[in-house]
Amino acid sequence: MRLSQLIGKTLRDDPKNAKLVSHKFLLRGAYIRQVGAGIYSLLPIAKKIVSKIENIIREEMNRIDGQEVMLPVVMPRELWEEAGRYDSIGDEMLRFKDRNNNDMLLGMTHEEAIVHLARTEINSYKQLPVMLYQIQTKFRDETRSRGGLIRVREFTMKDAYSFHTSFEDMVDYYHKVHEAYDRIFKRTGLVDFIDVKSDAGMMGGNTSHEFMLLTPDGEDTIFVCPQCKYRANKEIAQADYPGVEEDPLPLKKVATPGKKTIEEVAAFLKVEKQQTAKAVFYVAREKQLVFVLIRGDLEVNENKLGKALQTNDFRPAHDVEIEKAGAVAGYASPLNLSTDDFTLVVDPTVEQSNNLVTGANETDTHYINFNADRDLKGMEYIQTDIATPREGDPCPQCKKPLKSSRGIEIGNIFQLGTKYSQPMQADFLDEHGKRKPAVMGCYGIGVGRLMASVIEEKNDEYGPIWPLSIAPWQLQICAINYRKQEVKDATEKLYIELKEEGIDVLLDDRDEKAGVQFNDADLRGIPFRIVLSPRNLKKNQVEFKRRDSKDKTFIPLNKVVATLSHEIKQELKKYS
RNA sequence: CGGGGCGUAGCGCAGUCUGGUUAGCGCGUUCGGUUCGGGACCGAAAGGUCGGAGGUUCAAAUCCUCUCGCCCCGACCA
Q1: How far is the CA of A537 from the C1' of B21 (A)?
Q2: C-alpha dihedral over A507, A510, A511, A517, to 10 degrees?
Q3: Which nucleotides of B are covered by protein (CB under 7 A)?
Q4: Sign of the C-alpha dihedral, residues A135, A139, A142, A148?
């Protein structure tokens, strides 16, 4: 490819809206252009990278016996009603009507479509296990897209779905996908990524993992145990919060005039915050008051709470709503109240501690020596972990202090079970002729986000540093003083020879100053670069430089093709 | 969805508070010339419904109302 013909102008100035390095360089290097919020066009250079990433994914999916398919982007409402998601998913799904006034939608994920396909094509255990995948456009009407390609509304995704005769077989295959994902990310050049336990969210199912690129600019917070390798997304992460175990003392009212917050009450009564139980109120589905009791030093994890309540439709309660249930804001506890008026959720930390301070449902009054197992006896409540871990909290497995870090989610895998196959009747006949729903797993990778993530990990002040496995071109030629005949002749000759050798070359044949060419080359991040100039040609040599190094060496003109061919082959081995 | 910010040439911005001829600057683009190894210089040129609609006014990029779009923080997010 000749740079003089390549579509995509590099920008000198940093785009004002770009905060992430990947966003900045994707714009400056003319990889992407924005069309609308979270909607981008890919220019040729980005398309080349994305295609290479897709091919790596394809190879690894095929290696674990995946079969590539293509499912529709537009689907009818009826299909999505079968598993109940037409109603359960909110505005994140874009809906519209076709000319016949039928309700249609844009696919944001394809469980429904794949099950629709599988249930007609798969009817025997002899066909299982099987995995089908596609690389295709998804549309998710995110409330807030951000960070260039990191969070967008329209994006290309590899989504894979496996079907099995048993849960055990699915779990077994799940591990194979896990390994395939490791290979995919390594082959794209990523180094600093880990897998974490994650929340299945709207996908449903039990176990799921996310692959996270560790970077301070990531949008997810994850907790990692340096000792036992426990690692989990903040959404579901747990910790072994040290409790205060003592012999229970009798419940007693104490005056706490004007002390409403946990800080104030703890300070006033001269106890630690973890010796208190605090009340947090929500209203679920705009009708159900939720009373959350959690240890005073901990924060409620609303993601966990949502799971406990089986809805995401909740908000903090207003004081009026709290008072209707007989509780007094600032002095609230479940004591002396009736669970007929609210749903009570109690975090285990409260149960495991003794002699806590908690509200008395009277203004300016608290109880001391609250013991949940004794004092909540007879009350109906949900006992479940709803606490948010903090850095340094003990690991739930080995009790070593947890570390928190930030990450970008570059892939995820789910053990779906029969969540879709059951309601949609994707059944097969087993060896006894018995009809059973297939057990499913599903597995996703956002391709554009992966490309951006590689920039996040591999860049310098001048631009991205593409790993050779996904680089848009393998080699860049900078021809300095290209208009001079001797430079032009030597460059053209070499360009043809390199291409004939099978090397993917980008030739800067523009009549630009060296500085301009070098800066543009750095923005395009091509792994290898050679420079032809009058100065070098006089000595019958070219200058050679790797994008990931500052060192420059010289190669005799007649050795260039052989040397580069060798270098490229050696470098490619790192990613195979 | 809550809070904040911004829409003026392809990109980055000034001008708006305090209304006043043909709306500026830098980069980029085109043409001519001098340069030529880390974003050169000189000269000329093209390029604008000042996001949109309505209003106030002799006069609106500037003031008012409505509206659309985008960005950032948060909430949300297979």
Answers
A1: 59
A2: -70
A3: 1-2, 11-13, 26-28, 35-40, 69-78
A4: positive
Range(s) of the domain holding residue A534: 473-573
A3 CA vs B43 C1’ separation (Å): 28
Pairwise CA distance, residues A284 & A292, whole Å: 12
Question: Which nt has its C1' nearest the CA of A204?
Answer: B78
Q: Which helix (H) or strand (E) holds A42?
A: strand A39-42
Q: What is the pLDDT of residue A315?
A: 79
* Pair (A306, A355) in one structural domain: yes
Quickly give A35 CA vs B65 C1' distance in Å. 30
Residue A397 lies in a domain: no
Q: Is residue A287 part of a domain?
A: yes
Are both A478 and A507 inside the same structural domain? yes
Higher pLDDT, A129 or A240: A129
What CATH number does the domain containing A163 carry? 3.30.930.10
Query: Is residue A394 included in any domain, yes or no?
Result: no
> Tell me, what's the pLDDT at A299?
86
Q: What local confidence, expressed as pLDDT, does residue A201 receive?
A: 62
Same domain, A124 and A203: yes
Q: For residue A275, what are the CA distances in angstroms to A242, A244, A369?
A: 11, 7, 9
- Domain total in chain A: 3
